[in-house]
Design goal:
The complex is a heterodimer of chains A (about 450) and B (about 220).
Chain A lengths: L14 H9 L4 H7 L6 H11 L2 H9 L11 H5 L8 H14 L6 H13 L17 H14 L5 H13 L7 H16 L16 E4 L3 H5 L1 H13 L4 E2 L10 H5 L2 H18 L3 E4 L3 H14 L10 E3 L1 H10 L15 E3 L3 H5 L4 H11 L3 E2 L24 H18 L3 E3 L3 H14 L4 E3 L1 H8 L13
Parallel strand pairs in A: 1-2, 1-3, 3-4, 5-6, 5-7, 7-8
Helix pairs in contact in A: 1-9, 6-7, 6-8, 7-8, 9-14, 10-12, 12-21, 14-15, 16-18, 19-20
Chain B lengths: L1 H5 L1 H23 L3 H4 L7 H16 L5 H5 L1 H20 L1 H11 L8 H24 L1 H4 L4 H21 L5 H18 L7 H19 L11
Classes of the chains: A mainly alpha (about 450), B mainly alpha (about 220).
The complex binds protoporphyrin IX containing FE (HEM) (2 copies) and iron/sulfur cluster (SF4) (3 copies).
């Protein structure tokens, strides 16, 4: 059965393979090979038999074909109500067909399935809350992505992402040494302004173990320093693990369940090793979704919970502001109209809608809700890996329009977007549409707003 | 003929209907898998129950969910159609008369003119469901002959029952056709998308548990369907 050198059914477990993929600029060769990749129909059939259980089968069967889910999907709305973007149609014409044909599908069909699974659905799960039967396309497309991945039909960037997780236990090629160095560097860099600032690595029995997104050490190291400053100001006893520090999981977007397990287990191992009271994750939405919400299942933990209690960054912020560990200087509250991007991953699928509002009540004077909001909010337009796939850039850009309109309708020019993915999507949106919108994580805003206790101020600044 | 259709054939039809639906529910529950579905069905049970109840209640009440409220037209149509579908045959005098005669029990009944009206309303609702399927592009693309056939099978007993009741042309003929169409419908339910009669509840309970246990149900009040 024909397989390519780069595009194949194998997982990326060696640096050689990973480097070969990286060397293939924009995946030119990779996608070319994909056109020749045979579908292993026996394997597909066996996978269906083993994993397509009653929930998914029932959803495929009982769908009333009523179309109530149509305009719940931002991609349907953003593409002039193209009937081919109706969630039910998207899944029936892909997964539904594969099941109907008992896995006997060809290469061309699988490429269509791949394009649908990654460019017509961000797995935001919004449609699930508008279907009378509760048919959740986000879950079904997640499953379909797994099928595609096992057959080698996965976008190039995501294949690379899974390799990163498998090899580095991080979504980027950041080694444990790189990471620890970055922590030391940042602590030194910020020490002058924040006396006694430290980023304790591998401290046992701390109150908080912090985990984050590999892009922070790689591209935005200041984010780590900001985290440290805020923990420092709040007087937290915290640490970061030298290994098992990346909370994110591109393998979840890619449908590589094996890599998902490897990644979350690296974090759980750190929890078991350092025995913190709690884990606090960074602001990233999918990181929380993968490590805290879905991860225990990949790791086979029977109560569905992480080894130690794990919370999202917004939960920590709300708690710190509520209990007064962090105090906002009233004169520095955000005065201009400001809105908040509810991330699918920790709001719709994580229940943190009210926590987010609580934070806004402490820091903003003119908070404007988007419509719709909370668990019914639209996806930013870049979720599920959409932001990072070059092949679907045009489709991603088209999809941004819905969020853009939502933001413009609030009249606010500042969008608080804790989720990294949403943050990227809004940044790209501004680049394309130039509406004068600004976007921010919580950390930099908080640093400018909190009161600094006298004893933590740098000498001479009195 | 009448004796056969209301005797052994009716028993067979109801048997297939009830046993079929029970089997569907059993298969559904047995096919759930905590790790593959990523929901701890048997741990954190109280959150699961809470989520399940919220999910079912919101969607079984007219305008009970954000989804229903966002589309008043189809919501009204849907509830009228299903009300007629469930209420009319259950409480029809003729059906209960037969029940009493054959099985020795009967339910509370509605008057014949009421039944007539409900039947007509159900049929009109079905016509609107068809028109909706033809008119709206987002529904058209999902629709195949299968949907029309099942809608036809669903409303056939209503049409034929009405014709028999009003003795249009040949009472006996329509009565036979009515009974046959009713039995066909009962038999089709467990084997087609009409199995949603029970799987609606399975699916809503499952998703309710998913959100109740894993996706945020332990934080705050739960999902505002
Ligand atoms: C074993 C199957 C069935 C039997 C033996 C049966 C028998 C009857 C009988 C004897 C009548 C009365 C006709 C008259 O007035 O003389 C009737 C009417 C009716 N049946 Fe059935 N039926 C069956 C199944 C069904 C089913 C499955 C449905 C719908 C879901 C249904 C819906 C109706 C309706 C709506 C009417 C009355 C229409 C009206 O009053 O305008 N029947 N049926
Ligand atoms: C408690 C029982 C039932 C529940 C909760 C239920 C629920 C639903 C739901 C949620 C839909 C899809 C939504 C929509 O079309 O707007 C639907 C559609 C439908 N149901 Fe039911 N249903 C029930 C019983 C029945 C029964 C007994 C029948 C008749 C056999 C039936 C026949 C249909 C048909 C034909 C449709 C498709 C309508 C269309 O073509 O648009 N349902 N039902
Ligand atoms: S999960 Fe989101 S993107 Fe995917 S079909 Fe549903 S609404 Fe659309
Ligand atoms: S709303 Fe649900 S039942 Fe209706 S077409 Fe969409 S997925 Fe199917
Ligand atoms: S990037 Fe943010 S809004 Fe978009 S799918 Fe992910 S969590 Fe949702």
């Amino acid at each position: 059965m024909a397989e390519g050198k780069l595009c194949n059914r194998k997982t990326v477990d060696t640096k050689e393979y990973l480097n070969a993929l990286l060397a293939d600029k924009s995946g030119k060769q990779y996608y070319k090979e994909m056109e020749e990749l045979d579908v292993d129909t026996d394997k597909l059939q066996a996978t269906l038999k083993a994993s397509l259980k009653s929930r998914l089968r029932t959803w495929l069967e009982i769908c009333a074909h009523c179309g109530m889910c149509a305009d719940s999907c931002f991609l349907y709305l953003a593409n002039n109500r193209d009937p081919k973007q109706v969630p039910s149609y998207k899944i029936q014409s892909t997964l539904g067909e594969i099941v109907k044909r008992k896995g006997k599908v060809d290469n061309k069909f699988m490429r269509m399935v791949m394009d649908t699974a990654w460019s017509k659905c961000t797995c935001c799960n919004r449609c699930a809350s508008f279907c009378p039967f509760g048919i959740d396309m986000g879950i079904m497309f997640g499953y379909l992505r797994g099928l595609c991945f096992s057959q080698g039909f996965v976008p190039w960037e995501l294949k690379i992402g899974t390799g990163m997780h498998r090899i580095f236990q991080a979504q980027m090629d950041v080694t444990s040494e790189d990471w620890v160095d970055t922590c030391e560097w940042m602590a030194e860099e910020y020490e002058d302004d924040w006396p006694d600032l430290a980023i304790p690595v591998d401290k046992e029995n701390a109150d908080i173990m912090y985990t984050l997104n590999a892009r922070e050490p790689k591209h935005y190291p200041d984010d780590i320093a900001e985290t440290a400053v805020l923990f420092h100001l709040a007087g937290e006893n915290w640490t970061v693990p030298s290994e098992g520090w990346d909370q994110t999981n591109l393998a979840m977007f890619a449908g590589d369940w094996g890599a998902c397990k490897i990644q979350v287990e690296s974090v759980y191992k750190a929890m078991n090793r350092l025995k913190p009271k709690r884990m606090v994750g960074t602001e990233c939405g999918h990181a929380h979704r993968s490590t805290v919400i879905e991860g225990p299942y990949w790791a086979g933990i029977k109560d569905g919970k992480t080894p130690v209690e794990s919370i999202h960054y917004v939960e920590w912020v709300a708690e710190a502001l509520r209990t007064g560990k962090l105090k906002i200087d009233p004169s520095k509250k955000i005065k201009e109209p400001v809105t908040y991007q509810d991330s699918c991953n920790y709001i719709r699928n994580g229940g943190l809608k009210n926590i987010s509002r609580e934070i806004m009540s402490y820091i903003a004077e003119d908070f404007r809700e988007m419509t719709p909001n909370r668990e019914h909010n639209f996806c930013c337009g870049g979720g599920g890996g959409f932001n990072g796939i070059g092949r679907y850039r045009a489709q991603r850009n088209a999809g941004l329009q819905i969020k853009r309109q939502q933001i413009l309708d609030t009249g606010a020019k500042l969008v608080i977007s804790p989720c990294h993915n949403c943050w990227d999507a809004i940044r790209d949106m501004e680049e394309i549409f130039k509406d004068g919108i600004r976007w921010s994580f919580l950390k930099p805003l908080l640093i400018n707003m909190v009161e600094v206790p006298e004893h933590l101020k740098p000498e001479g600044e009195l | 003929m009448y004796e056969f259709l209301t005797g052994p054939a009716a028993i067979a039809a109801f048997g297939i209907f009830f046993i079929g639906l029970i089997v569907r529910v059993i298969i559904y529950i047995r096919g759930l898998h905590w790790q593959m579905d990523r929901v701890t069905y048997t741990v954190n049970v109280s959150y699961g129950i809470k989520g399940a109840i919220r999910s079912v209640i919101a969607w079984i009440l007219p305008f009970g969910s954000v989804g229903w409220r966002s589309k008043p037209g189809i919501t009204l149509l849907f509830f009228i159609f299903h009300f007629g579908l469930l209420f009319t045959p259950l409480f029809l005098q003729a059906h209960n008369f037969l029940l009493k005669e054959r099985w020795g029990f009967s339910l509370w009944t509605i008057s014949d003119p009421t039944a007539d009206l409900l039947t007509i309303i159900t049929l009109v609702a079905a016509v609107f469901l068809v028109l909706r399927r033809i008119a709206l592009a987002e529904v058209r693309i999902l629709t195949t002959a299968y949907d029309y056939i099942l809608l036809g099978i669903t409303v056939a007993p209503f049409l034929t029952g009405l014709l028999a009741f009003h003795q249009v042309w040949d009472y006996h003929f329509w009565l036979m056709v009515h009974i046959i169409s009713g039995e066909i419908m009962l038999i089709c339910i467990p084997f087609t998308k009409l199995s949603h009669v029970v799987l609606f509840f399975c699916s809503r309970i499952q998703l309710g548990m998913d959100f109740g246990i894993k996706r945020g149900g332990m934080k705050g009040k739960g999902f505002a369907w």
